[in-house]
Design goal:
Length: 183
């Protein structure tokens, strides 16, 4: 595949995650994602995101549309790990750690602060970030905390795989990559 074609496809958000030609040398990103909240659940689980120790639960206003968690060995601007939705029909349980590949980035603003979400698929699965998925995620984040007075969250825009890889790389913990410590 020609590099110009690969770049166009990468930005389209409809790329297959496992097509290494789309990312170029050194741009493939295998991540370990800790599943904090299960698809279909109205329960938000809280964990210490560095030790993975369970810290409690809360009820939310919308059920998670897909498994949600965070990327290990990262730290976002809010001091927590980088958030991640896993686009899959596979049933994933709270506490499970799955290897994923990024396919997009949902730019999100929470209470006036950047709190983006990486969108990923389980390694070996194919996935697409289509209009229906974008709408489902936008609806979810816009209403998940309706029960919390004054809480505002909005999805700004959706970006492609390269933006997700750049975001994860930018937020890697020192001395580690998304799949664990560098050796």
């Amino acid at each position: 595949m020609k590099p110009s074609t690969a770049s166009t496809l990468t930005r389209s958000l409809g790329v297959k995650h496992n097509d290494e030609a789309l990312t170029g040398p050194g741009r493939s990103r295998n991540m370990k994602v800790f599943i904090q909240n299960e698809a279909g659940s109205f329960t938000k689980n809280y964990h210490d995101e560095k030790t993975l120790k369970f810290a409690g639960t809360a009820r939310i206003s919308r059920a998670y549309p897909m498994p949600y968690g965070f990327i290990l060995h990262t730290t976002a601007d809010d001091g927590l790990n980088v958030d991640c939705f896993v686009l899959t029909k596979t049933s994933l349980q709270t506490g499970q750690i799955v290897e994923c590949d990024p396919i997009g980035l949902m730019e999100q603003i929470e209470d006036g602060n950047e709190d983006h979400n990486v969108l990923a698929v389980i390694r070996g699965e194919e996935g697409r970030l289509d209009g229906e998925t974008k709408q489902m995620l936008t609806e979810f984040v816009s209403h998940v905390f309706d029960h919390v007075a004054g809480k505002t969250i909005r999805a700004d825009s959706f970006r492609g795989r390269e933006s997700a890889i750049d975001y994860v790389t930018e937020h890697e913990d020192s001395g580690s990559g998304p799949i664990g410590p560098r050796v």
